[in-house]
Amino acid sequence: MLLIKNGTIITMCSDIIENGEVLIDKGKIIKVGENINVSSNCEIFDAEGGFVMPGIIDAHCHIGMWEDGLGFEGDDGNEITDPVTPQLRAIDAINPMDRAFKEAYENGITCVCTGPGSANVIGGQFATIKTKGKRIDDMIVQEPAAMKVAFGENPKRCYNSKKQTPSTRMATASILREYLFKTKNYIKNKDKNENFDMKLESLIPVVNGELNVKAHAHRADDIFTAIRIANEFGLKMTIEHCTEGHLIADELAKEGYAAIVGPSLTTRSKVELKELSFETPKALYKAGVKIALMTDHPVIPVHYLPMCAALAVKAGLDEEAALKAITINPAEILGISHRVGSIEIGKDADIVVFDKHPFDIYAKTKLVLIDGEIAFIDAKHKN
Fold first, then answer.
1. Among 39, 180, 232, 324, which is 20 to 30 Å from 99 by CA?
2. Same domain for 26 and 163?
3. Do 111 and 38 share a structural domain?
4. Share of the chain above pLDDT 70, in %
């Protein structure tokens, strides 16, 4: 057993507990509160007045897919040879030895959803994983976690340079519809059809509404195209990036799709980003859209996710909403809130102790637990 004491507990499921305690056993949280009675052989970590919060979750990144400090050899995120690749699985490309993982967990990022990029209309399958481990199979929380699809600039740019479709937004939407229709027909005739199609097999859970679609869309018109197609086919979907979301926040609130916003700590490097602003999360939140924040690592290094949340607060987002946007909201959006995202009895002991408020630029991690195991501990507390 391990008891974390003398900390301000940001539970993300109930009120903040001043000078609270968290008891952990066998990788799970078993008690949360004040003055918890423990046996004499229980290990104790003194938070010394610091802040204790759930492990931070990045709901959209590409960690391990574009490896840190490498060029082509570590670039495994986009298969730019075919605009339709739903059969590709992130777990076959993620390298847990990428040093970005160490930077992630040492800074309190304990869980990420990572996967293919946005070159293809249908890019492949994301996976949700813990950030510490040597073997990807042992790090998985959810796989597949979502199917990546992309609208707007990226697919048309990648394939226009090859002189093939799609080179327009019309073609991108048409290709996606075509494969969704093909999959519906494939399901209908599966018992009669002896021809196995791996692409269509991979899309069956998407068409059945069992697997979420991550829809890459920056511009307002692309966001509406994603919504149009999702509504046509009854898809489960989240809007990824949602850069112009603040321009259409009321409309998005009516539709009910969650938005995973970012990366905001970047330059306006392409046309689609001309409206890039840290005020987008505030506008969406105030309109009633459920939001999470992302880094899109390696666009923003994944360990800067708390900084992105702090900058969103600076731009007007409610502080509690910003904390939720990197903890319980991504957990709920990804469908893993039964395990992570808050400090609650029965959940995985993914916990971070900061010496200052996590949005303080000077805040440092004192302790990081993943599944109750110490992923990081500061020099002062090492034996």
1. 324
2. no
3. no
4. 99
At 280 the three-state DSSP class reads helix
Bridge partners of residue 45, in order along the sequence:
4
Q: What is the pLDDT of residue 380?
A: 84
> Are residues 276 and 223 located together in one domain of the fold?
yes
Range of the domain at 231: 56-340
- Please indicate, yes or no, whether residues 268 and 371 belong to a single structural domain of this protein: no
**One domain, residues 192 and 306:** yes
335 and 380 inside one domain = no
What CATH number corresponds to the domain at position 129? Answer: 3.20.20.140
Average pLDDT over residues 91-108: 98
pLDDT digits (tens, 9 = 90+) for 49-87: 999 999 999 999 999 999 988 888 889 999 999 999 999
Same domain flag for 281 and 270: yes
3-state secondary structure of 375: strand
Structure tokens at 242: 């949602």
Based on the fold, state whether residues 261 and 310 are members of the same structural domain: yes
Single-letter code of the amino acid located at 74? G
Separation of alpha carbons 164 and 169, rounded Å: 13
% of the chain at pLDDT higher than 90 = 93
DSSP secondary structure string for all residues of 85-118:
-TT-BGGGT--TTSHHHHHHHHTTEEEEEE---S
Report d(CA 132, CA 308) in Å as an integer: 22
Cβ-Cβ contacts under 8 Å for 167 (sequence gap 6 or more):
156, 159, 160
Distance CA 321, CA 134 (A): 34
